[in-house]
User: What shape does this take?
Amino acid sequence: MISNQKKILLLILISILSLLSILLVTIAFWFQHPQKNPQAVVLIEKGSSLSDIATTLSAQNVLDFPFLFKTTLYGTISWRDLKAGEYFIPANVTPAQLIHILKSGEVILHPLTVIEGETSHQFTQKLLQDVRFTGVSEVPPEGRLLPETYYFPRGTDRKKIMARLQKAMSEALADAWAKRAPDHPLKSPDELLILASIIEKETRLAPERPIVAAVFLNRLKQNMPLQADPTVLYGLQREGGKELSLSDLKKETPYNTYLIQGLPPTPIANPGRACLKAVATPAEVPYVYFVADGSGGHVFATTLEEHEKNHSNWRKIRDSKTQ
Assistant: This one.
């Protein structure tokens, strides 16, 4: 016969096993059952402990039973696979899905855009003021950032961002240079980049870019000064919007292409792919002059006589708008 003491121990053991079975069934049900959480964005900081993570998730109302969450992860040691970052948590997520999301490392990516024609200084100031990213960054060389929209996780170091943008420009410039027209007059990728930056500032119309590029290349071939107003503005550290005066055109800077021969020493902005392509494969036209046509575009000419006539028409249009 079984003694009373053994019966008691057996009952206790059965009770413990029953409770464990109930707990396991409860956890299994909870693990796969949708919670009543709203969708949310949750930031898991680097170095967070499992308790920190559970507290953050609970505070964001995406986890209803932090204790079960910790128990489940501790039991499988899989909490070490949770990754820091900013995550989108859908509504009515199951704990199993929640854990999968936090293990995936598929964090939210934030868009960051370099605008065509933006200077490196302008972009750097914008980046330094963007609280989504961390660290410091110096102003990169002018023209060395490729205008595009990029995506980065929250907290990305700004130096890494700048490195990626510069790498993208290096690759785009190398590609444009490799595809340049035969007998291209420019001598290096750097010269192509400089002229592309001028084109970026001269016209916003895509069909005009190869034509404007051809105008400046024709001037270089004929040893004519470029006479590009945006280069003068850059040398004077001024933005566009106000017409240059005669005194502005006489101010000596390395960027005054009314006074210097050839290209300025550096780009004057960050040109996009379209302008790189326009300079690499310009239109086959004889033009060496162009002036605004009053509608946002330009009119082109081969002779000085034609150009002076077009310029006179532009002045009439401009004066009529100011009256």
